[in-house]
From TrEMBL:
GO molecular function: (R)-3-amino-2-methylpropionate-pyruvate transaminase activity; alanine-glyoxylate transaminase activity; beta-alanine:pyruvate transaminase activity; pyridoxal phosphate binding
Superkingdom of origin organism: Eukaryota
Protein name, entry field: Alanine--glyoxylate aminotransferase 2, mitochondrial
Compartments in which it is found: Mitochondrion
Function of the molecule: Multifunctional aminotransferase with a broad substrate specificity. Catalyzes the conversion of glyoxylate to glycine using alanine as the amino donor. Catalyzes metabolism of not L- but the D-isomer of D-beta-aminoisobutyric acid to generate 2-methyl-3-oxopropanoate and alanine. Catalyzes the transfer of the amino group from beta-alanine to pyruvate to yield L-alanine and 3-oxopropanoate. Can metabolize NG-monomethyl-L-arginine (NMMA), asymmetric NG,NG-dimethyl-L-arginine (ADMA) and symmetric NG,N'G-dimethyl-L-arginine (SDMA).
Sequence similarity: Belongs to the class-III pyridoxal-phosphate-dependent aminotransferase family.
Taxonomic source organism: Knipowitschia caucasica (Caucasian dwarf goby)
Reactions mediated catalytically: L-ornithine + pyruvate = 5-amino-2-oxopentanoate + L-alanine; 2-oxobutanoate + L-alanine = (2S)-2-aminobutanoate + pyruvate; N(omega),N(omega)-dimethyl-L-arginine + glyoxylate = 5-(3,3-dimethylguanidino)-2-oxopentanoate + glycine; N(omega),N(omega)-dimethyl-L-arginine + oxaloacetate = 5-(3,3-dimethylguanidino)-2-oxopentanoate + L-aspartate
Main localisation: mitochondrion
């Protein structure tokens, strides 16, 4: 039972003492005051329970306060809170060996950080040192962090400041087959309706050829003949669960490598089994990156991140001394180790595939009923639902309407996220322990919220 300060007190303190941005990013008119979590559930200060389908932005991987992970944290807290790499201590070694076993060759050298932005900062530095080149390419509408360097990678306008940041970073067109200029209608065999269909295994999509042509153009005109790195998420997260057409990433990697660059997969949201069919999102594209960055789900909510690369790139990076006080902290490593054990022992990735596929299949049925659902896409438990004014225009559903539906869903006990360039995409990235019953509950709630909205309209 919650016995702390009142809601009014918290709001007052938030207004007066907290970063003003924290007021802006609250999704709800009537905010949720979270007190406690267990697995896929959250409780507010009044004891009301919510099904959490956003997981602190794909961060809770195996479940809020998962017993095995909590036990590992408590055990380590009673043994050793902190020491640095100056000394040799077991948890970091146990963890690095374990994490490496989840990655394909030659991705075996691990650097531990405290966040995704920090991991991407480090990856930028590594790529530049290794290649001797400076320019870095990312997708339009991407989010890779908010540090001064990673703000250069991030191209989602909402997060940009009118200041120079991340010198040497530029964008290529995001191969978004729903909102981009080339889409599912360019399928060679038969025009497909949605992005998810467009990732069809036949690889027949002409959109790939068009977007690759555009990438070639960018490589020829916007960056010098050699480039340091190409950063991409396997499925865009903040960008709204945007998936790329079949083979795009594979062909892009080839072009970048031909021009001396390394390929970096940002697995901050897609890693650790979230995409269901694969442990890492890049595996779904049949590529092996040169550098992989990770955070969020790695620690199930404990602040942590990592960069994994090849021995060759690591050797080039060893030209200087790299030190990070908290990176590889013993408590973080013990937690992250328990997260990996849990994913394996509980079949978390398989659950992600089963429940995620069911959710998307059922939501496609809702898409066929409601004119305001334009696209259902994603993989496993990294899902996007694109809200539109109507299917033919594909114009984004206005923010107020999206907000109303979001609030209604919350009032019926389910928390989901939103994102996309216009805030038009509902995002589902729950703790991966959710069940089929939870999925059914959400589907009923979502259906009701949509019909409530249509009635009000
Ligand atoms: N990369 C991706 C894909 C992300 O979604 C985020 C966070 N939303 C980051 C990097 C940055 O991570 P952090 O907030 O831990 O710095």
């Amino acid at each position: 039972e919650y016995k702390g300060m009142s809601k009014d007190q918290m709001l007052q303190i938030r207004r007066q003492f907290c970063n003003p941005m924290t007021m802006k990013v609250t999704f709800y008119k009537r905010p949720v005051f979270i007190h406690q979590g267990h697995m896929q559930w959250l409780w507010d200060v009044d004891g009301r329970r919510y099904l959490d389908l956003f997981a602190g932005v794909a961060t809770i991987s195996v479940g809020h306060c998962h017993p095995r992970v909590t036990e590992a944290a408590v055990k380590q807290l009673k043994t050793l809170w902190h020491t640095t790499n100056i000394y040799v201590y077991p948890p970091i070694h146990e963890y690095c060996e374990k994490l490496a076993s989840y990655l394909p060759d030659p991705l075996k050298v691990i650097y531990l950080t405290n966040s995704g932005s920090e991991a991407n900062d480090l990856a930028m530095l590594m790529a530049r040192l290794y290649t001797g080149n400076f320019d870095i390419l990312t997708f339009g509408n991407s989010y890779h962090g908010s540090s001064t360097q990673t703000l250069g990678l991030t191209s989602n306008a909402a997060y940009k400041y009118p200041l120079p940041s991340g010198l040497g970073c530029s964008n290529t067109m995001c191969p978004d087959v729903y909102r981009g200029i080339w889409g599912g209608s360019h399928c060679r065999d038969s025009p497909v309706q949605t992005t998810r269909d467009c990732s069809c295994p036949q690889g027949c999509c002409l959109a790939t050829d068009h977007y690759i042509g555009q990438l070639k153009q960018t490589l020829a005109t916007s960056v010098p003949s050699r480039i340091a790195a190409f950063f991409a998420e396997p499925i865009q997260g903040v960008g709204g669960a945007v998936q790329y057409p079949k083979n795009y990433l594979k062909e892009a990697y080839k072009l970048v490598r031909e021009r001396g660059g390394v390929c970096i997969a940002d697995e901050v949201q897609t890693g650790f089994g979230r995409t269901g069919s694969d442990f890492w999102g890049f595996q779904g594209h049949d590529v092996i990156p040169d550098i992989v960055t990770m955070a969020k789900g790695i620690g199930n909510g404990f602040p942590m991140g990592a960069v994994v690369t090849t021995p060759e790139i690591a050797a080039a990076f060893a030209k200087g001394v790299h030190f990070n006080t908290f990176g590889g902290n013993p408590v973080a490593c013990s937690v992250a180790s328990a997260v990996l054990d849990t994913i394996t022992l509980e079949g978390t990735q398989q659950n992600s595939l089963k429940v995620g596929t069911y959710l998307m299949t059922e939501m496609e049925k809702l898409r066929d009923v409601y004119e305001i659902i334009g696209d259902v896409r994603g993989k496993g438990l990294q899902i996007g639902v694109e809200m539109v004014k109507d299917k033919s225009s594909r114009d984004p559903l206005p923010a107020e309407a999206v907000g109303e539906i979001l609030e209604d869903v919350k009032d019926m006990g389910v928390l989901i996220g939103k994102g996309g360039l216009y805030g038009q995409t509902f995002r589902l990235k729950p703790p991966m322990c959710i069940t089929m019953e939870d999925a059914d509950y959400f589907l009923a709630v979502f259906n009701k919220a949509l019909s409530n909205y249509m009635e009000r309209k």
